[in-house]
Write a structure and sequence with these properties.
- The chain has about 280 residues and is an alpha/beta fold.
- The chain folds into two domains: about 15-225, TIM Barrel, CATH 3.20.20; about 230-275, no CATH class.
- It contains twelve helices and ten strands.
- The strands form three sheets. It has a six-stranded parallel sheet with strand order 1-2-3-4-5-6. The chain has a two-stranded parallel sheet with strand order 7-8.
């Protein structure tokens, strides 16, 4: 049985919030993000991890789809994280360093058949298992962690490396019938031009959204993943030219069925977003 709702499928800008900062939970929920991820892993220092679990109860009161990023399976804090989540009846998990459907199966076995998981791919093993992870019925979406991925490979987090990984995650997601993956967060908070550039690159490489680590990033991420006015005007010109079914040149390019389908999809996305959808 697949999880109920698959709430994350259309999210563009989920926001991380540290689990040891409960005063920020409601602010994150009202920030404009379309999902919230309460983070027990990277955002919490080791000495504060056990205490941070006591704040998870507040996740039950948030309006947005709310996930808990646990610590990695096999580590010192994973079992305690899963136990705390089970005790509270939470059912949305962000699983870091996901490398095998067996790890997902273990979460489902412990938490129940209605659990919904973001599988965060951050290692070479995880990337090799992307198709199997995306195909798991309890994985709502794949997400990418470029910093840990580069660390695992022992190389710099170059644009070429990130593009390669994202395109593979996008293909795996599409083949499994899942939403396009979420790109990893940008560390650019004040340089909005660079953040927008990163978003556009991720979009070109197959991402369907981008994880956020600061509320100031949300509006820029959402905007970057929307079709631009220029794209929407092009799409409308294509559909106008294709009304009689005859072959036409649009902007010097012959339009055919795939191009018409892309134009239609762009206009549909633009309409959905202007109507308040995500």
């Amino acid at each position: 049985m697949s999880p109920q709702g698959n709430q994350l499928c259309s999210a563009v800008a989920p926001l991380f919030v540290p689990a040891d900062r409960p005063e920020r939970f409601d602010k994150a929920d009202r920030s404009g993000a379309d999902a919230v991820i309460i983070d027990l892993e990277d955002a919490v220092v080791p000495a504060a991890k056990e205490g941070a679990r006591s704040n998870l109860r507040q996740a039950l009161t948030l309006r947005n789809p709310t996930y808990v990023r646990v610590n990695a399976a096999g580590g010192n804090w994973y079992d305690g994280d899963i136990a705390a989540i089970k005790a509270l009846g939470l059912r949305r998990i962000c699983l870091p360093k996901a490398e095998s459907p067996a790890t997902v199966d273990a979460v489902v076995q412990t938490l129940g058949d209605d659990v919904e998981i973001i599988a965060l791919v951050e290692t070479a093993r995880g990337l090799e298992a992307a198709a199997a992870l995306a195909g798991h019925s309890h994985v709502a979406r794949l997400a990418f962690g470029p910093a840990d991925f580069a660390l695992d490979l022992g190389v710099a987090a170059s644009e070429a490396l990130k593009a390669h990984a994202m395109m593979r995650l996008a293909v795996a997601s599409k083949a499994a019938g899942k939403a396009l993956p979420l790109d990893g967060p940008s560390f650019e908070v004040t340089d909005t031009a660079k953040l927008t550039f990163e978003c556009r690159q991720a979009l070109d490489h197959g991402a369907g959204g981008k994880l956020c680590i600061h509320p100031a990033q949300i509006a820029h991420v959402i905007s970057a993943f929307q079709p631009s006015d220029e794209q929407l005007r092009w799409a409308q010109r294509v559909l106008d030219a294709a009304q009689d079914g005859a072959a036409r040149l649009v902007d010097g390019r012959m339009i055919d069925a795939p191009i018409i389908a892309r134009a239609r999809a762009l206009l549909l996305r633009g309409h959905s977003q202007s109507s308040g959808g995500v």
